[in-house]
Amino acid sequence: MKTVSTTIQGTVQQQQLHQQDGHFIHPPSSSSFTEPSSTRTGSVALQDDLSDPTDPYLHSNPTESQKNNNKLYKPHVQSGLFGASSNLVNAIVGAGIIGIPYALKQSGIIAGVILLILVIILTEKSLRLIVGLASFHPTLRRYHVRTFEDLASYPFDRIGRIFILTNMFILAYGAMLAYLLIIKDTVPTILRFSVSHLNTNATLSTTTNTSTSTANSSSDNQDWWYANTVLIVSSLVIILPLAIKRDMASLAIFSSFSVSADVVLTIFILIYAPIYTSIQHSGGLSHVLIHNAIQPSTLFIAVGILSTAMSCQHSCFIISESLRDKTQRRWAMVTGSSLFFAGFFTATLGIAGYLGFLQDTKGDVLNNFDSKSYEANFARLLLAITMFFTYPMESFVARHVLVVLFHGGDIDGVVHQEEDISTVNSNITATTPREQLICLCLNRRHILSMGIFFATLLPAIILSDIGPVLSITGSLGGAFLCYFSPGMVYLGVYGEEFLQSTEQLLDSYHGGKLFKRKQQKNKSNSHVTKDDLPMDGTANVWLNTHDHQNPSSSIELPIAGDSSQVLVTFPKATQSKPIWWYIGLFPFWCFIARVGKSNMNKKCSSAATLSQSSDILGDISKPPTCCDFLYAMVFITFGIISAVAGVVSNIWFLLKK
User: Fold this and answer.
1) Cα–Cα distance measured from residue 158 to residue 148, given in angstroms and rounded to the nearest whole number
2) Is 371 inside a domain boundary?
3) Which of 72, 336, 490, 504 sits CB 3.0–4.6 Å from 632 for a disulfide?
4) What is the pLDDT of residues 66-104, one digit of tens each?
5) In a domain, 546, yes or no
6) Is residue 648 part of a domain?
7) 3-state SS of 512-558?
8) What three-state secondary structure class fits 420?
9) pTM for this predicted structure
10) Is 558 a member of any domain?
11) SS3 10
């Protein structure tokens, strides 16, 4: 998982002064926040107000300037299929790939490969699903939905928005912690420090006397101090100055560099991992496949690592906006080719790394290689450089979430100061925004950036294994963001259609069961016999006329000898639900659909009133089918199981160690 470099602007900078109550208000000279903007071909530069599109303050005065503001949502540079696919691969392939061999160790090689294929399929489907809702839904496509959190706010209002942002923070925080652990593993080795958990060529004596034990303990303490000293100094000197910057456009080149580094790492592991020797010592490939096919107790630890490595849902909106002539077919081509390429490299590195070391595979597979190998240290150097310059990008994501959740998008804490600009003929004061300094010369951006940095540095000093970090991050943030949320959003957006489908299922069930013995002999089922009429004192059926315009109108029962055409309708409250209704968790799915339907009606109604956008021509998604709803339910179920089982498995595994 990695963040795509882009540019987002929190408030629109106006060029003219706005007059209000006799005062001239100068707009802020800089945006509320800015993400790194990419400078390579096919990259994206977006500006987004990241606010509720139904906010009356934003749309209270729809003028020509507002129409111009909508253009800021569009990318400055668009790309074709190859460019968009490259950006998506760039977003997927990150540092998480280094932990794939460890994931196969935890799941078993055969189960791990199956899980990897499953995660790739679900990721590809989820990318098409959520972008399809935002860009091709008949209603939502009019309201310029540009982010995952904005999309979730339509069916689930503010709760949906907060839920997406929270999981984005979890993924970003876990990624930053993993990056620091990788730096802690690689940089001291490159500098020829002896780190206790690296494989070395030193031969330890088997003597168990007190002096040898004391010497080993002292060496371990020195290794711990060396590694953490290098981590602290290097991160303070390189990472922190970059993390507190507002504009990280200069780091965009390292986004492409990291993909090249991952390709080099894959080739290195294929060539230098002792695959043949390891397999021969274990009794052959067939023996390895049979005895290491699946590890049930730690299976979901692997799911968390794979989810972390493949998560890119929070970046796919930016990439989809960069696609020229975007249609459902072209976006499907982008997701399919990107996931195939990323999955190929992930599987290659994972299988080669695991077969090379089998049960000795570590969370960072480079730790299995000799610390004195020039080739291994070159690979470590590439990985370390990538970590130094990728950490600030994830730091920005975490900072952005905190700013949006707690400060309304104002990253600098802007305050307005009045200045007297009176002239001879007029007495006028102007209000100019200034950055509010919180501590000495530090503003809100500096404080948040430093707080996030130290919140990740302290655990990195204590921890030493990257595997559990990647797994827990994926089990929480990855499972909810990649699987649970897309399914929930889809079911919520199409809540009305889902409820109609379930009603049709129930009607078909009851129609076949309750009215089978009441089939008409000569005419249609519009006639009612004397036995069908309710007895005196009962009210378990209704008699309705064929007047559909006024179905609640009262009727008089026919007198003896007369006939009348009526319909017998059984109230739904008296109809029992079939067993498959509860086994399939339909009460839960219908609850989600009802909540989504209610919020969608309110949000879309409000947005339609405030928005000045007209109908947009272009590709429109087809109405959902039962298969689409089944996909959504599978996403939700898999996300919940992955999260719960992943956290429990990690806790059990850590306690067992």
Assistant:
1) 13
2) yes
3) 490
4) 333 334 345 556 778 888 888 888 788 777 788 999 999
5) no
6) no
7) HHHCHHHCCCCCCCCCCCHHHCCCCCCCCCEEECCCCCCCCCCCCCC
8) strand
9) 0.76
10) no
11) coil
